[in-house]
């Protein structure tokens, strides 16, 4: 197929759609950058915090590597490398998964829980400062509706 024919088949964004898309991208980048900066000041990365907070909410403070990778949208190998770094810092430990020879359980350590408990108030203040307190209740409701729609598979 020629480049021209492929080009004609594309559904280009109109001006309103392009403005909305660019605004969404700028918003996602700004929020992520600002909250990541605030977490870094606490000695944690966003993925660190995501793993710690997820494990803290799970029964036995445990999750399989595969479940956690899926939740984060990461490959198992990427999360495994990250977990190795977190394990070296004493934030979690790994245990064999008897049902998956390639997998393991990620278990939150006491040090990991203490680190999360120390970081949580500042992280929540960051989320409030950069998002929650800047929006009205109606904005928050609309944001939740939009997030729900965009979270569904296309």
- Point out poorly predicted stretches: none
End-to-end Cα distance: 26 Å
Class of the domain at 41-121, according to the CATH hierarchy?
Mainly Alpha
CATH architecture label name of the domain at 41-121? Orthogonal Bundle
State the order of secondary-structure elements, H for helix, E for strand: HHHEHHEEHH
Count the helices. How many?
Answer: 7
Beta-strand percentage range: 5-15%
The major pleated sheet works out as:
3 strands, antiparallel
Shape: globular
- Looking at CATH, the homologous superfamily of the domain at 41-121 is Winged helix-like DNA-binding domain superfamily/Winged helix DNA-binding domain
As for the CATH topology of the domain at 41-121, it is Arc Repressor Mutant, subunit A
Account of the 3D structure:
It is a single chain. The chain has 154 residues and is mainly alpha-helical. The chain has a domain at 41-121: Winged helix-like DNA-binding domain superfamily/Winged helix DNA-binding domain (Arc Repressor Mutant, subunit A, Orthogonal Bundle), CATH 1.10.10.10. Helix content is 66%, strand content 8%. It is built from seven helices and three strands. The chain has helices spanning 3-9, 15-40, 46-57, 65-72, 76-88, 110-130, 137-151; strands spanning 62-64, 92-96, 104-108. A three-stranded antiparallel beta sheet has the order 1-3-2. Strand 2 (92-96) and strand 3 form a beta hairpin. Helix 2 packs across helix 6 and helix 4 (65-72) packs across helix 5 (76-88). The two termini are 26 Å apart. GO terms for molecular function: DNA binding; DNA-binding transcription factor activity. Residues 17-152 form the HTH marR-type domain. Keywords: DNA-binding.
